[in-house]
Amino acid sequence: MRALAVIVALGLFSIFSVRWMDHEQRVQQARLDVSRIAHAVRLFRADFGRCPADVGELVAPPDGSPYLPPLRDPWGRDYQLQCPSRHDGEDADVFSRGPDGAATSRDNVKNMIVDLTI
Question: Full-prediction pTM beyond 0.70?
């Protein structure tokens, strides 16, 4: 009986640890993508002297030379872009809405500085 309880406990532990690892891998991929998008925005601004309208314009810019391949976040949604940044006019705010898809939750993956004094 104890052996069965131990086997069940180990099975449950392995299921939850795999899900946790999957979540962490998705977050790491989103961080990498957000960094790549922010860099592509800087290159686009240097070339065109303006902000891209959205991430799609980085994939298909006016001159036809893409800055990025098509990207979706690890949860299957589009990355969000605000350019210029609300916090630094020389940069852009790039983020994924994270696993829950909400625009203003703590699980969002972002490059922007968050002002907590508001």
Answer: yes
